[in-house]
Specification:
The structure is a homodimer.
Chain A lengths: L1 E6 L3 H12 L1 H8 L3 E7 L12 E2 L2 H5 L4 E6 L7 H10 L3 E4 L2 H17 L4 E2 L11 H7 L5 E7 L2 H13 L3 H10 L8 H4 L2 H15 L9 E2 L7 H9 L2 E11 L7 E11 L11 E8 L3 E8 L3 H17 L24 E2 L1 E6 L3 H8 L4 E3 L8 E5 L3 E2 H13 L3 E8 L3
Parallel strand pairs in A: 1-2, 1-4, 2-3, 4-5, 5-6, 8-10, 10-18
Antiparallel strand pairs in A: 7-9, 7-11, 9-10, 11-12, 13-17, 14-16, 14-18, 15-16
């Protein structure tokens, strides 16, 4: 029997209890022994049949030598970071769903795990129930990872899907998402892209072996996306999606591009067809080509099932440590995104917009939409250095054209 | 340094050499040590810089105690089966891409591996470069797998895509696939569904823990699919795909449905958008819901990269054995598909077809296509027990209606 402790009895924590309870026999057969949740840490009181397992004191778990695996599903950096460090130092493997913790402290916790010959696993921190961390690290181990791009946040994907499919405004779609429990009352972490940013940082760190910090990653959310943008996207066979992406640059530095922004992508592509609260992640390996992983990126049971999958893996690898790791060498390996190139979609308005646009931009494609006002223009540019694009946008403004929005066009 | 041997220097075997060579440093960093291909077994002569590694005698590999991992990429049952057994018995882990071998002898080879405390891995046997075996076994370990369905054969998917997108006949699309090297000169293993059958058997065995044998699995290929069927599919928002599927039945027996057949599926679904030589596999877990894996299902480097991923995993788990396993209990766990239910698409012709169809079938939806002959009818039935459907089709014939084709309608 493997004894574990669960830190936090919120949505994911109670889901972990439920998954282990529901699939008890199945898991025991797979693992060769049963999993027993010995203690649960939560400061709140719960009226559940297993309330005798609760403690408010982390030391009850830390000092219990029978507990070999600690599941951290509290969220936030503190006290999760402190608890994880202490558990690893006491030679307990740690499994977490906490993307904030992994994005901020992953390198350090992986190092402590290795020093103590235990494992630090975090499959649930990216893509919820979708297997991605382990497949990337293990099944694709023979590949140099050239690029990763994904729809990493279910809340924003739900909102964008409502805008695209039902012509709902951003505000109404957000309200609906909040009503359905997909979005928090304060939706900033989702709609401003921070959640997606943490996830792409974890994937980038895993792909490149260096800790990529969220503060170095340009992050733009979806609050400026309007129904007009969605209509113009449709006009060129695209949909607007919030894309987190990272790409190895071909130069000597080994530096990477890493950013989060809305993007036009083809509505026929493997990422373009991912709707509602689903997530999808494309990994491009130098031998295997594109591989896409798709599924529920959040939710109680999908996330809990990824956590329990990690618990099973940690139990199987008792007293061994996996080589899954990345270093924090104190440097920023993310290039200034202004030095990278991409085509843009631009929406603007003003007198003589069409001829002014043609003066400033070469090789553009104008778009159309139903009831387009005469003084509104939308177009797709050729691939441009981001800094050059900024100058051109500045020139448009100088000539009296109001730039309403612009969105990157990506080829995923 | 890990010394390995490669049995077979065909497409996959030479790909294994290429992947290990190209990504040598990357792999060594991940694994913590380099991989050295010490010997290659092939009866043919090759003019390559590493020709000194070749042998024609398997004993040179078997008796070399420095070789800890044997890669079997010869294909076919014999002598691959004999070589794999011998290698495992000599405590060498075996990695294979050979679906025929795994589908026929998986349970036995897994058992021998376990007895010898080594590993038998076969990630490349299903889905080529797509991670599926390990994610299903490990990341989704906390789930009871309710269902697996997939586009498992790239050749047939390429042919169907050409029929759907370019209105090409089956015969022309097959010729093109042969010309491009996607199909063999004798295309039976692909177009008759046998390749997809072996793959769904491997996935079913993994999901249910019992060896599922190809000979117990009803298998229908795509040779009867016509452009008319493709047009009618389009009329109801569907595409025709060759689907391998397995599903746990809700009865007490623990028996499963397992079959391969063409199917109408929605052209907007995660499997419906998978085109060309790509494969996609949907796994439905009782906690995580639907997870889909997508990528190149065949080809030299994708397949080789999955093989080398397994080599890395086997090297990491030296002298330990994974619990990945299934049993052969001598029973057939696949139910008679005639006792299962599904809606059907039917195409037929004859005088008064419409009224005769309505007499025999309840609750049907008629379909249309451009230039539909007056005496031709196509329709989708309600969900019907397969044996009941057979009786109804028989009644149609008795009333003078010629049934040209029928295809299952699936909800993936």
């Amino acid at each position: 029997m493997v004894n574990i402790a669960v830190l936090g009895h919120g949505v994911v924590g109670s889901g972990v209890v439920e998954v282990i309870d529901t699939n008890y026999g199945h898991i025991a057969k797979n693992l060769g022994q049963a999993i027993n949740i010995k203690r649960i840490l939560d400061l709140r009181e719960f009226d559940v049949p297993y309330s005798y397992k609760f403690t408010k004191d982390f030391d009850d778990i830390l000092n219990d030598d029978e507990i070999s695996i600690v599941v951290e599903v509290m969220g936030g950096i503190n006290p999760a970071y402190d608890f994880a460090k202490k558990a690893l130092s006491r030679k307990k493997s740690v499994v977490t769903s906490n993307k904030e913790l992994v994005a901020a402290k992953g390198a350090e916790l992986l190092k402590i795990a290795k020093e103590n010959n235990v494992n630090f696993y975090f499959e649930a921190s990216v893509g919820g129930g979708i297997p991605i961390i382990m497949p990337m690290h293990s099944c694709l181990a023979a590949n140099v990872i050239d690029e990763v791009a994904g729809i990493l946040n279910g809340t924003t994907n739900y909102i964008l899907t409502k805008m695209i499919r039902e012509n709902m405004s951003f505000e109404d779609a957000l309200k609906l998402a909040q009503h359905l429990g997909y979005a928090e009352r304060n939706p900033s972490a989702d709609v401003d892209g921070h959640d997606a940013c943490r996830k792409i940082c974890i994937l980038a760190s895993l792909a490149y072996g260096k800790h990529i910090y969220p503060e170095n990653v340009y992050t733009q959310g979806i609050t400026d996306i309007s129904l007009e943008d969605v209509e113009y996207a449709d006009n060129c066979g695209c949909v607007v999606k919030l894309i987190g992406r990272t790409k190895k640059l071909s130069n000597e530095s080994g530096d990477i591009l890493c950013m989060v922004s809305p993007a036009f992508i083809s509505n026929q592509s493997q990422l373009g067809v991912i709707d509602d609260v689903f997530n999808g992640i494309m990994v491009r390996g130098n031998a295997t080509g594109d591989v896409v992983f798709y599924g529920k990126g959040a939710g109680k049971l999908p996330t809990a099932s990824a956590v329990v999958g990690d618990v099973i893996a940690a139990a199987k690898r008792f007293k061994t440590t996996e080589s899954l790791t990345w270093e924090d060498d104190g440097k920023n390996h993310v290039v200034d995104y202004k030095t990278t190139s991409v085509p843009f979609y631009v929406r603007c308005k003003g007198e003589n917009a069409e001829s002014i646009i043609c003066e400033i931009f070469d090789d553009i494609e104008f778009l159309s939409r139903k009831n387009k006002p005469d003084n509104e223009q939308a177009f797709i540019t050729a691939e441009l250095l981001e800094s050059d694009f900024d100058s051109k946008i500045e020139k448009l403004s100088q000539k009296g054209i109001e730039v309403i929005n612009y969105i990157r066009v990506l080829n995923y």
